[in-house]
Design brief:
The protein is an all-alpha fold and about 55 residues long. It is built from two helices and no strands. The longest helix has 26 residues. The chain is elongated, with a radius of gyration of 14 Å.
């Protein structure tokens, strides 16, 4: 059974992010939650790339 909060690639869906953000008191749209997820993914990719460059 596929988890409805995670997409095929294992990423959190915008709907799940919206649910999590609303639990923290933020009132956003699904589109805003999607933009936040996109930003966080980019930030995570930058952090991982920087870490891996230091190790070489």
């Amino acid at each position: 059974m596929e988890n409805e909060n995670v997409d095929v690639k294992g990423k959190i869906t915008p709907e799940k992010a919206l649910e999590m953000l609303k639990a923290e008191g933020l009132d956003l749209t699904v589109e805003q939650a999607k933009e936040i997820l996109d930003f966080l993914r980019k930030l995570a990719n930058i952090a991982v790339s920087k870490y891996l460059r230091k190790r070489v």
